[in-house]
Structure formats: C-alpha cells, structure tokens
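Researcher: Structure prediction, please.
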Amino acid sequence: MTHPIEAVIMSTLASERSWLLDPNLLKLVHQCRRLIQSEFGVKLHLTEQHLEERLADYAGKTRSPHLIRTWEALKAQVPQLSVSTDPGEGQPKRLYRGQVIEEEPGTRPALPNRTPRPCRGKPR
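Model: Predicted structure follows.
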C-alpha cells in the first residue's frame, strides 16, 4: 500500500511529464540519455525526480555538438524545459574535466608563503 503523499507526488510527477508520452519527444530524450551515458558514463532514468534538470546540466557541460543540438531541439518542442530553475545560472562556473568546481565568493586559493632560495651552484 502506498502512502497518500507518495501517491500525490507520483501523480504530480506524471502530469508534469505528460510530454514524454509523445513518441518524437521520447526519442529525443533517449538520444540525450544515450549521448550522456557515452560521454559522462552516467545512466539517467526516465523515472528520476529531477530528470529535466540533470539533462540540462549535462547538456551544459558537454563537448558534443550532437548532444547540444538534440537538447536544443527538445527544449524548442517542450516549453517547460526552457524555464531556468537555477538562480545562479547567469554566472560562469569554473570547470575541471567537465565537473563544476565549487568556490566561495570572494575567496581565492592561497599560495604557500615561500622564501626565494638561491639556485645551487650560483653565488648570490
């Protein structure tokens, strides 16, 4: 027996994802998932709660023009995917090998305090 809250969440999720019932849109989502898995090694499932955000996140990190084109085609056909849910999306993020580097605002990595040493063999 499912809990009443779980039933509400599942029905809300189903109504929000009704666009996945369109075979053409589902094909585009499958293409995105396949490209994300081949590039990042991450397998996204259609039943994930934040599928749209994760697709958008990986589409923003990718180097694949095919994934970018597929995601843009999907966004053009599903208007609710174009709505940004990330408040800091306008700010450029630092990436290292496709992963976002978290950095606190106003802080910079500290350099170690070193005193210059003379080169060996060269008198100062």
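Model: Residues 59 and 69 are 9 Å apart (CA to CA).
Researcher: Thanks, that helps.
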